[in-house]
Amino acid sequence: MRNKLKAFEDIRFTYIATFERYGKNVVSGIEYPTMLFTNLKNSFGDYICDHIWTREVKKFKSLNLKPGDKVIFSAQTKKYKRGYKGSNPLPRNYKISYDYKLIYIKNIKKITWKI
């Protein structure tokens, strides 16, 4: 669980992360492109979580991100229910739990660090 995101629930905040790779999520037969970010920090540099998946936003596509690129963006944190919710009794051992995700991602920029 991403407990540190809990403090930002329903609040728009600025985050910095490292892009790792693209992926996909299939929901009811519809495929959604996703993106994996690692080393998520808030704008103050405080560590938030080791990784987070988000749906791909059009602006991300135009940045031509490669693994290792750092990005800064604003997003809203939202609580969601995770685990198996279907009617098949076999996979019932997947317990329902809650976690936090980033939604409404805006103001996206690729950043470079110069030392």
Summarize the topology:
Layout (H helix, E strand, L loop, with lengths): L2 H4 L5 E16 L2 E13 L4 E9 L2 H5 L7 E13 L14 E15 L4
Antiparallel strand pairs: 1-2, 1-4, 2-3, 4-5
Please provide a brief summary of the model.
The chain has 115 residues and is mainly beta.
Distance between the termini: 34 Å
Strand content: over 45%
How helix-rich are the residues, as a percent range? under 10%
Annotation field: number of helices: 2
Order of helices and strands: HEEEHEE
Write down the overall mean pLDDT: 85
Largest sheet: 5 strands, antiparallel
Could you name the key traits of this structure?
5-stranded antiparallel β-sheet; globular; 115 residues; 8% helix; single chain; mainly beta
Descriptive account of the structure:
- The structure is a single chain.
- With 115 residues, this protein is mainly beta.
- Helix content is 8%, strand content 57%.
- It has helices spanning 3-6, 58-62; strands spanning 12-27, 30-42, 47-55, 70-82, 97-111.
- It has a five-stranded antiparallel beta sheet with strand order 3-2-1-4-5.
- It is globular.
